[in-house]
Protein: Formate/nitrite transporter
Organism: Corynebacterium felinum
Amino acid sequence: MSIDTAIAKKVDLLTSSPARYVARSVYAGAYLTLGTAFAAQVGSRVEAIAPGLGAPVFALLFFVGLATIIFLGAELTTSNMMYVCFAAYRRHITASRAAALLAVCTVFNLVGALLVGLALSHAYVFAHMDPSHLAANIVAHKLDKSPTGWIIEGIIANFVVNMGVIACLLLKDATAKLFTLMFVIAIFVGLGTEHVIANFSLMSIVGFAADPLPEQFALVSVAQNWVWAWIGNFLGGGVLMGAGYAWLNSGPESYRD
């Protein structure tokens, strides 16, 4: 599927059936949170056995949530940043329509993350989470950064995420897509950078399950992280990858993706 075809489907669904677009956005938040919870739990268990290996395991398993979103056709804000900027550069979508699509998708990705985070707080494996859990440690480190750090790391994170998304558009084989996502997505996770929807997931899990909460965890800090990470993600995935690839593919030359 081309990017033009994909964005046309997204805009048509949002326009003709907003409830279905909302549902696909909620599913994306839910899928990513389930995948994040799985990766964090396995990583935490590995860390207890082999200190220092928990974070790399978490990074390598994190792709599960994103792969599920891609294969099951859910709507993820950070990949949609790339789609709408690509389409806006080519004048296939208005700025107002792009903004509406991203706003709806962001809000309902968060709803999906919150719902699953709340549900998982009642699951046995998360019912007794303390600050030593890998997920709680990751959240504490994220909330200890400055706005500049959140923006710069947000740029890096969504630049990498959309490397994987574009690769999946170009690849035809499902197995190739899985392996590509596993290692590409591990880049941004392993580097500890800021992906706003992944942060929705992590902070929902920790916020509902951890007792006590990490010292850095406060609603103001969480909200600031989400806002600055969203801006960084838009610059990295939207401007650099979306508009960047639109420019690359707009020339007269034969080398197009």
Remarks:
- The CA atoms of residues 123 and 231 lie 33 Å apart.
- The chain has one domain: 3-248.
